[in-house]
Amino acid sequence: MREALPLLYLARHGETAWSLSGRHTGLTDVPLTERGERDARGLGERLRGLTVARVLTSPLQRAARTCDLAGFGSAAEIDRDLVEWNYGSYEGRTSADIKQERPDWHLFRDGCPGGETAADVGARVDRVIGRARAAQGDVLLFSSGHVLRVLAARWLGLEPAAGRYFFLSTGSLSALGYEHSRTQPVIRLWDDVRQGGTSPPGKAAP
Residue 194 — very low, low, confident or very high, per pLDDT cuts 50/70/90? Predict the structure, then answer.
């Protein structure tokens, strides 16, 4: 019988005031907006009936609250490696504002002064991936946009900076998995913001 290959689900937190305005939100612990809380409950509807071996969440409230409102708070483990990218002196600033000083700046290529580079974030998410792959079943992660984008790149064996190719919306659900065997990592679902659903997302046969 063919082995049932596990999935790694990625849930980006719901909307915050800073995500709405485009401000880089790394370690600043901002809450969800009312819409963000609705986003989180919508994730719960999308994930209803899903059984997972582990649930890991960033300790920051925007992710942890999303996890709780989605119905997985009681099962969640805090994983500090899932904290969002440390933007250093660019914390709270928009890309447009930063580019007034550095017109050619790109987060995934250049990193942030006083903060992290893509390689720094890559080292963290590699540890998360290791924990996920060691679990006996599917795993669900709650975190923030840029760190999850780097995680997707590393899942596929790409350099951390390749996360620039994977856009993520707030309140979105994605799923990483395999095709045919564990030697062939793939994206099974990406940036899904649909509501509802009657079967576990990403489970369709290839």
Answer: confident
